[in-house]
Amino acid sequence: MRLLLVEDEKRMAQALCEILRLEKYEVDHFDNGLNGLAAIESGIYDIAILDVMLPDMNGFEIAKQARIKGIVTPILMLTAKSELDDKVIGLDSGADDYLTKPFMTKELLARLRALGRRTLGKADGILSFGDITLDINTLTLTCITNSQSVRLSEKEYHILEYLIANSGQILTREQLAMKIWGFDSDSEYNNVEVYMSFTRKKLAFVEAKTEIKAVRGIGYEMRFENV
């Protein structure tokens, strides 16, 4: 799961990035409002964590502008203010949840898990498509027709998760590269090809009929043909 963190306090941002990466989240960090808005508008993030007080544009305005442009990414707002009016402003701006500084790490992670389940639409942590399931917690791919399972690498899991979340759509190599490796990555598009090959081999290993189809000159899509 890829997170966007927009926080201008350097120490806070470093600490949060370290905590979230230890929890196996992919995290991109920006330290000002304008870059944060551009990032959330890319649509590649599963959850956005926005500080309220930011240079250029505050977190309330980022949330408001993102919602106006149709971005549905869940937003967790961070603020040093605890007044009810500030919480109301944040929620009215489009935030889904609100956390007041200072906060406990356990509470932050619990809020993110709740938002993550809402994003994926599965309270039990299981994603399904065609004849396969993905276990969010163990990164396990299972074919439901024969109960054959295999453990996925993080990149393989994120590829399947992204394809399933966008089933019925063709995802370009550029979209996949940004989603899986992020803005700051210097990865080339051939990384997409390499990990796509690994992921297809895992699907073949469990003998799934669900396939990742290449669409010439465009990208990839998830397909299931039960014949």
Please, could you describe this protein's structure?
By secondary structure, this protein is α/β, with parallel strands linked by helices. It folds into 2 domains: 2-120, Response regulator (Rossmann fold, 3-Layer(aba) Sandwich); 126-224, Winged helix-like DNA-binding domain superfamily/Winged helix DNA-binding domain (Arc Repressor Mutant, subunit A), CATH 1.10.10.10. Helix 2 (33-41) runs parallel beside helix 3, helix 3 runs parallel beside helix 4 and helix 6 packs across helix 8. It is elongated. The relative contact order is 0.11. A hairpin with a 4-residue loop joins strand 7 and strand 8. The protein contains 8 helices and 12 strands. The strands form 3 sheets. Strands 2-1-3-4-5 form a 5-stranded parallel sheet, with helices on both faces.
Order of helices and strands: EHEHEHEHEHEEEEHEHHEE
Integer average pLDDT: 87
Number of helices: 8
Oligomer classification: single chain
Residue share in helix: 40-55%
In the CATH classification, which architecture of the largest domain applies? 3-Layer(aba) Sandwich
Which short descriptors sum up this protein?
227 residues, 2 domains, 4-stranded antiparallel sheet, 8 helices, 12 strands, elongated
